[in-house]
Amino acid sequence: MPPYANLLDETSFPPWEKLPWDTSCPELGILPWLIVESYKGCLSDTHWCFLAEIQECNGIKFFRYRTVVKDDKDKVMFVSFYPDSYEGFDWKKLKKGHTLAIMYAMQHRFLDGTSGVRVEDMDDVHVFPISLRDFKGLGTEMKKYLAETEGGRWKCHGCDESKPSHQMSRCGKCKLDCQAKGWNERDHKQHCKVIRDPNFMALMKLDFSEYEGPFSFQRT
User: Are residues 49 and 101 in the same domain?
Assistant: First the structure.
């Protein structure tokens, strides 16, 4: 199992053009919008996660939340939410500039002729308070400053020196000067908020090559 997922891998994190159509899953039959739990993983025995940056969210329209997002190929599409209940999810987090992560996303044709992603299960969705570009860059940094590959030693995010993990702060800095450098020069203040999110670490540690059941985000 790889220590951390590769956010640049288009098999695990496909852009819009590589997402499957929901009608391509035979288990969904002619009514692909029905809530069918088995759709997760029915196209392959692996996980995948669609990442896009929120461009616009105007709240509820026609009794549904609908937001406009853009992937890293600059493709713009809608994401519409059809949960059984709107409770339990913090809809205020759907803000412009934040990254929306959707597990097992599929391309869907809406009745008005537009295309996008239809979300039934809110446990498949999480919002990270960071731009898509910075989110993917953070994933690259996670692999660079990986503790597990150095026998419990961490590479400082400020000076790049490798030291025992007990000498490091929670944010991966070995001293205050390094913390100041990371916050002021490398945007680590914003990154720390994302890294401390248990859903980020769960996603990064998910083995996308093995499917033993659907992955769900925790409600925070």
Answer: yes
